[in-house]
Amino acid sequence: MSHTIEKIHTPKLIGVEAAKKLDVKELTDLFHAHMNPGQYHFLKLLGFHKVLIDRAEGMYYIERTGRRILDFFGGFGALALGHNHPRILAARQHFQDESRHEIALTFISQYACALSSNLAAIAPGDLDMVLLGSTGSEAVEAALKLAEQFHGPERSTVVYATQAFHGKTRGALSVTDSEFYQSTFKLLENNIRVPFGDLDALEQTFTQDHSIGALILETIQGGAGIVTAPVEYWQGVRQLCDRYDVLWIADEVQCGMGRTGRFFAFEHAGVIPDIVTLAKSLGGGKSAMAAMIARRPVYMQAYGTPKTALIHGPSTFSGIGEACVTAIETLNTLYDENCIDNAAIQGSYLIQRLQLLAEKYPKLIKEVRGQGLMVGLEFHDFSKTMPYGIENMISLLDEKLKGSLCGFIGSLLLKDYDILVAFTEYNRNVIRLEPPLIVTREQIDTFVDALDDLLSRGIIRIVTHYIKVVLNGIR
Ligand SMILES: Cc1ncc(COP(=O)(O)O)c(C=O)c1O
What are the pLDDT digits (tens) for 79-95? Predict the structure, then answer.
C-alpha cells in the first residue's frame, strides 16, 4: 500500500514587514473583514479611524505622518512607564540576546520566582503568595476561585459593588455591574450587589446572608468614571470583613502600580485586604502580565498541600519568561525613577488646574475627582438642554452621543490639539485621565491649556465643529 502525501497548500499570509506598511484603507478593510465591523462605527464617530500609528515613545503616540499625539489615556492605566521605556526595552533585548527560556511549566523559573518575590516585598503584611497570569480578568478569576476554595461551597456567595468593572470573562463578568456587558449570558448566580461606599448596606448584607464568603471591590472605580470612597469606608470594610469572616478582594488592576501616589490605592487607608489583583501596567507597556497576591494563610488553606496545589495551578503562559523580566524591570524602574512620587505630585497639580477650569466653566464642568494620576472630569448632562436643532443632528449620527460632551471633546482634542483622552463605559459624561506616571508638569499644562481653549468655544461651537469633523470623515 502506498501513501501519497499531499503538499500542504500555503495560505496567502501577510508578513511582518508588509503589516507595518499597511495604509489606512487596507487597515480599515482588514478591520471590517476580520475584527470588529460594529466597533468601526464608534472609531469613525470619534475621528480615530484615520489615525495610523507607526511608533510610540514616552508620553506620545507617533503617526506615520510624524504627528505626535500626547497620551493622557494611557491604555486605561496600562502604561505607567509610558511607551517603550528604554530600561524595559533594554531588559527585553538582553533576555532575547541570551536566548533565555520562556515557558515555566516544568522547571522552576528564576524569573517567575523573582517577580513573585518582588510583589511580596512590595505588598504589605502577609500578602506573600503570588499566582501569575496574563490579564486582569484572569487575576480576578483566580481571586474569586481562591476565595471559594478557602471557604468551601457553602460560603461561595460573592458581594460586589454598584458600577463595578472587573473584566469580561464569565466569573469576572458575574460581579461586573453592567447589564450591557452581561447581556444575556448565563452567569454565576450567587452574587449580591451593594452600593459602593455604603458601609451600612454592606453590614446589613453580611448579617442577612451567611453564604457570603468574599467581597470584591475596585479601590477606585475606573469604569464607573473614577469614583472614590473615603478612608473611613476602607477601614470599615476591613473591620466588617474581619467581623463576618469574609475575604476582601481588592481589585487594583487599574488603580494599582503607583497610579494613585501609593503602590496600592488601599495603602492610603492603612488597611490590608486578603487578596489583591494587579495587571495592566505590571506588563511595563510591552507585555501581558497579571498577578493575584494572597495572604499566606488564605493561600495555604486553599492550595497549600500537594493534593490541592494544582487545583488552580499555572496556565500555559503563567510566569512566561520575557513578560516576567519585563515586570521585574518595571517594578524596579517605578521605584528607581520615583514614578510613584511623581504620580502624587503631578496628579495633585492636574486636579488643582482642572478645578480652576471647573470654576471658569461652571456650566460645562460638573466635577473633577480622583487621586494621583487617576482623574475623572465630569461634564454636565446636556441631553435636556442641548438646542433642539443640534440635538437632532447629533441623534442622526448616533443616539449615544446625545447629551454627552465627552465624545465631542475627545474628538476635538485629538483633531485640533493632538491629545488623546479616554471615555467611560458607564458614564458618558466623564473623561478619564490616566496618563503615564512619567508625565511632566509642562505636559499637564499643555493638556489643561488645550482643554481651556476648547471649552472657551462654548457648547454650540464645540458641537458644530464636531459635526463638521465627523461629516468630513465619513467615507
Ligand atoms: C478594575 C479592573 N479589573 C479588571 C479588569 C480586566 O482586565 P483585563 O482587561 O486585562 O482582562 C479591568 C480592565 O479594565 C479593570 O479596570
Answer: 999 999 999 999 999 99
Contact at 8 Å (CB) between 95 and 321?
yes
Q: Does domain 87-336 have CATH number 3.40.50.720?
A: no
Burial of 89 (0-12, 13-18, 19+ CB in 10 A): middle
CA gap 345, 350 in Å, rounded: 9
- In the numeric block, which cell numbers belong to residue 396? 442622526
> Could you tell me where the beta strands, DSSP code E, fall in 110-256?
127-133, 157-161, 191-194, 212-218, 247-251
Which of helix, strand or coil describes residue 168? coil
Ligand 1 atom nearest to 140, measured from its CA: 4
Confidence check: pLDDT of 66 > 50: yes
From 82, 88, 87, select the one nearest 436 (Cα to Cα). Answer: 82
Q: Is 166 in the pocket of ligand 1 (CB under 6 A)?
A: yes
Atom of ligand 1 nearest to the CA of 136: 7
Neighbours of 140 (CB within 10 A): 28
In eight-state DSSP terms, residue 188 is: -
What digits encode the pLDDT tens for the residues 292-323? Answer: 999 999 999 999 999 999 998 889 999 999 99
Task: Write out the residue limits of the CATH 3.40.640.10 domain(s) in the chain.
Answer: 87-336
* CATH code of the domain made up of 339-379+403-424: 3.90.1150.10
Q: Which residues neighbour 421 within 8 Å (Cβ) at sequence distance 6 or greater? A: 72, 73, 409, 410, 413, 431, 432, 433
228 in Cβ contact with 347 (< 8 Å): no
- CB of 254 shorter than 6 A to ligand 1: yes
Q: How far is the CA of 136 from the centre of ligand 1 (A)?
A: 5
Domain with CATH 3.90.1150.10 in the chain: 339-379+403-424
Per residue in 182-213, pLDDT tens? 999 999 999 999 999 999 999 999 999 999 99
DSSP SS3 for 160: strand
